[in-house]
Amino acid sequence: MATADDDQRFMRRALDLAEKGRGLVEPNPMVGCVIVQDGQVVGEGFHERFGGPHAEVNAIANAGGASLSGCTVYVTLEPCCHHGKTPPCTDALLKIKPARVVIAMQDPFPKVQGGGIQVLTSHKIQVSVGTCGQAAAQLNAPFVKVHQVGKPWVIAKWAMTLDGKLATASGSSKWISGEAARAEVHRIRGYCDAVMVGSGTVKLDDPLLTTRPPGPRTAARIVIDSQATLSTSSRLIETISEAPVIVAVSESARSERLERLAHAGCALVVCEGSDHAQRMESFLRQLAQRGMTNVLVEGGSQLLGLLWDARQIDEVFAFIAPKIAGGSEAISPVGGRGILNMEEATQLVRTDLRSYQETICLHGFTGF
Fold first, then answer.
1. Cβ neighbours for 127, distance < 8 A, ≥ 6 positions apart
2. Which of 22, 114, 127, 195 counts the highest number of beta carbons within 10 A?
3. What average pLDDT score do residues 182-202 get?
């Protein structure tokens, strides 16, 4: 008989397996599965790619055809019970006749949402839900947010000097962080669906925003540009064959500018609303409808401030370099309205400190 410690141990292994799918399975969730018989792991697997077999099917295949009757199955997310790109995972589990299925968390996807659990229990299989549930929810927080809130997971990244400057008063910012830190930013880009900047950043820095070397995903480059002023000679448009360019515009943008960007190959997204915050809300919802799960925001200060004031940021990577810029007119990372009293400041949770040679990174979550 498995103990609670056994359940924790095997589920943690399933979570480690699930993590291997990051950047490869979205907009699907990352899922891992471990099959145990007589206290020994006999099969394990994870969801390896979007459209491919799910974790349970891969774990069963990994067991090599051995009889699995009476086994215990550990899976990080409720098995699906509907036909999507693959058959229901509940069907695959019923065929092996497990005695018990341990599930970390219920699936928020409307076509499942408890239905998989109901199928299993209706066939007299013992089901336990909640083992390592918090860790599973954190792993798939972007997936959960898309289905519960209708918006993608928003990750804010910035590099700043020790005295908190994003750039000098003249706008100079290359390079604040070191090479190792910049390599980490490319790694993060590699599992995101999009990288977002404001039009001011494009005009000042003319960035590429591509991932080098390429990661598992090709992030679309997003420019928040309400009046469609993006230059067709920008490096973003010159490299549009390497990664898509999406331009978020307002309803008041001039038609000739929209036609020019559309002709250059940009995807235009018209955002409804009477102010920047309302238009951003509209835009994020449209990104979720396009199947985007993780969006990385790389600035500038006005865009980060807008998102922060609207409580739209979920995760933060703040790279801090041992440099001092000074200057009362130098730019800080997060603009916007801000707060009046320090007790109103957002306290990041689940923080960790990472070192990238001379640059350190404070990573955490907002808890919004």
1. 100, 101, 102, 103, 117, 120, 121
2. 195
3. 95
